[in-house]
Write a structure and sequence with these properties.
The chain is mainly alpha-helical and 281 residues long. The chain has 13 helices and five strands. Bound molecules: zinc ion (ZN).
Length: 281
């Protein structure tokens, strides 16, 4: 029965691939349903990155901080399964605690999340997780799964200047911002990201700490990251197990508490906007 079901599923998969298209996930080697070719990834990312920035408060106006975030991301990207892509790691001036990826190598992290992190290895953990989503083309797969294809094709048509095009673009931006990946994709992004961290010489414990920080924050208020990501409970468990069984001598790898403090926290603390308007005397 199970065999029969599997056979039916694989025949369905094969037919789906024949009629629509499939892509091989470089992390797992599995074929996945994909409605559009890899060459479109960069075009989609390039088109929607400015929209996502606009929706999320724009870039943090500090070139040194941006260069630092990007340099950590580039170290991760260079050891990934798709090192040839042009990656962009951008810090957004938004108070939410969030990180997201667009197809083609556009990766964002919010100021709210940066403020909660404490080390470079934790930042590398978030960027490595998002890089894995890009490598596995999870955004593209999720879009295909979400049956957003009609909207997507319409939005890809060069109609951005027309009012209708602008509406579609705004809609698609919201789709990107609220996109949920499957639990399987998330697990693969966690474990794939963990691998990239170690290859880039970062202590993988940073990813576990990030989950703990987010979990702690989530007890105070629902945080945005978990509106699109699974809860961290079992993620901490499988990440800890992977670190113990797959990697040795992790203590020698970089944590970077001081680097993170001077490159990120110092700037964010000094440029905190006052919570209330100053009272006139
Ligand atoms: Zn994710």
């Amino acid at each position: 029965m199970i065999m029969h079901k599997k056979l039916t599923l694989s025949i369905f998969g094969l037919l789906a691939c024949l009629f629509t298209g499939c892509a091989v996930n470089p992390i797992t080697g599995e074929e996945e349903l994909m409605f559009y070719p890899e060459t479109k990834d960069v075009a989609i990312g390039r088109k929607y990155a400015p929209e996502v920035e606009k929706h999320m408060g724009g870039k943090i106006a500090n070139e040194t901080l941006q260069a630092y975030i990007d340099s950590i991301g580039q170290k991760i990207a260079r050891v990934s399964h798709r090192p040839d892509l042009e990656y962009h790691f951008v810090a957004l001036d938004h108070k939410s605690l969030n990180a997201l990826a667009l197809p083609g190598g556009y990766i964002f992290i919010t100021k709210g999340l940066l403020e909660k992190l404490e080390t470079e290895a934790q930042l590398a953990g978030i960027l490595a997780h998002e890089t894995s989503h890009v490598v596995a083309r999870d955004t593209s797969v999720a879009l295909s799964r979400a049956q957003a294809m009609d909207l997507f094709v319409a939005a890809m048509a060069v109609s951005g200047a027309t009012p209708a095009g602008a509406v579609k673009m705004a809609h698609l931006t919201r789709v990107f911002l609220g996109l949920r990946y499957s639990r399987k994709d998330e697990r693969e992004a966690d474990l794939g990201g963990l691998d990239y961290m170690v290859r880039a010489r970062y202590n993988p414990q940073g990813m576990v700490e990030t989950m703990q920080i987010l979990q702690e924050e989530d007890t105070r208020r629902p945080i945005e990251f978990f509106s699109t990501h699974p809860s961290p409970h079992n993620r901490i468990a499988y990440l800890t197990e992977a670190i113990q069984t797959k990697y040795s001598r992790v203590a020698r790898l970089k944590v970077g508490e001081e680097d993170y403090r001077s490159a990120v926290l110092q700037y964010l603390t000094n440029n905190k906007k006052p919570k209330t308007a100053p009272v006139e005397p």
